[in-house]
Amino acid sequence: MISEGNSVRRAVLFFLILFLVVSPFSGAQSIEKPKTPSWFRDGTYLVYTMMMPTNPKKGEVNVIEVWPRLLPPQGIPKSIIEDLDNSSTVTLLVSGDMYLTIKIVNTTSDTAYVQIELELNNVSAKQGIIIPRLSLKKTLLLNLTEMLYYEEDGTPIGSPMFFVNPLHLPKEDDYIVVPAFLKKYGLISDRITIKNVSYTWMENRVLHTHYKDFMPPYLYVEGRGLYLVYNRQTGGSFDIVTQLVYDIDTGILITTGLCDITPELVSLGIVKVIALDRVNSRKLYKLIDEGKADKEWYAQGFNLYDTNVKLPDYGSGRSPSTPVKYFFVLSLVVLAMTALWTERRWKR
């Protein structure tokens, strides 16, 4: 009985020490609370890709559904614009590489502009017409206090999804795209919100991207919507699934899984993406056949291709000890101690 009492006292003492260690950090954060990541500045860029093999097989094609009212007019051939129907989506078949570039410009203490460009190669919008290169571009105003994209007329779009601040992570039930934005452009949908935030995605696997290899843990964010109407005349709809994987140290997106909608993509008119990085997919299938997929994985969505953000060095083969990881581990310890304390209370 005495031994058990001493154990409880030691557990309480340890918990109090942890509280004292964490409290100064929490207090400092409550004063400063920077909303942007430390690397966020003019000229920062992130480039993502989904690559196609040199000789794609039959059926190796990516599908993008676009909402005509949201398409940036520049760069769209007249042959496509003239036939656009604003009551339904237009299907783009892409048989070449895709590149998505995010660039930060004109930052102030309160706002920044984010340039977004999606380059599609070998695009077919209608039978018999091939567009060698199609570029969709948009510049969004980012309110740094709210970390929310806005249109020029003040319509909110949503929070950045291709980067997050590791100290201000997305939360469950946050909007991926704000309903007011969808309504403005005649899109009928369910609430498209974040449903899951976790650190257990591919927790034991090295993740290969075209830019570099990443080590776990990863931040995984998943958003869903039950439906988005793609044809207002027939009522036809599809469900929305967006899966995003981030580097836990910097908060930049490493890769997507399914990625139907983000504020960045929908601002270009994209409301559904059925696509894979076919080059990495072939590598992944080979990895699975060789029985090595329990240790490593190839990113198959929009995965990192280039950036000027300084990323952690994984040369040692282990995930580095950074402040973010330190407090992540510390939070797990606190949770474990809380569980232990609760269990002992129930036993008493």
From TrEMBL:
<protein>
    <submittedName>
        <fullName>Uncharacterized protein</fullName>
    </submittedName>
</protein>
